[in-house]
Design a protein that fits this description.
single chain; 155 residues; mainly beta; 4-stranded antiparallel beta sheet; 0% helix; 52% strand
Length: 155
């Protein structure tokens, strides 16, 4: 199944000027920094609530809380957050460029989280808490058996 995803609404996204802003305070039309280093304009902002999520913790102390379907750039290509495992390396944007940082822990969160993401004009990846993730217009394949069924039943 193909899926996209969101991250916790207080997640910091890298803007084109290098500043980081919580996704819940960005505006349509603002430029942000894309995964390839280019400028990309925010076309839409998606907000919502999810009954559960994933917490990714990297060995450098970075934490990202997101939905199970959020695309994460790994050294093996794009994966849904639910498919990322400890020991995987994820794309990480540092001041001097992109590197791959090891995932230390992946934990399911079984509580309501307020989430958001952005749709971009010409790219599919953004920098969220330093991690290269998919904007809302990026989808990935995921085995639906890995996904938590919605509260109304199975997929």
């Amino acid at each position: 199944m193909q899926i996209n995803g969101l991250f916790e609404k207080t997640t910091l996204i890298r803007m084109i000027d290098g500043a980081q802003k919580p996704v819940d305070s960005v505006h349509i039309g603002e430029p942000c920094y894309s995964e390839d280093g280019s400028r990309s304009q925010i076309l839409d902002i998606i907000v919502g609530r999810e009954a559960c999520g994933i917490q990714l913790s990297l060995i450098n102390g970075t934490v990202l809380i997101c939905t199970e379907g959020l695309p994460i750039q790994t050294s093996e290509g794009w994966k849904a957050a639910v498919s990322v495992k400890p020991g995987d390396s994820v794309g990480y944007q540092e001041k001097w460029g992109k590197a791959y940082i090891e995932v230390q822990e992946v934990r399911k969160i079984n509580e309501n989280i307020q989430v958001a993401n952005v749709c971009l004009e010409d790219t599919v990846g953004i920098i969220a808490n330093g991690i290269v993730v998919g904007a809302f217009n990026k989808v990935v394949e995921v085995d639906e058996k890995l996904m938590t069924p919605p509260p109304w039943g199975t997929w």
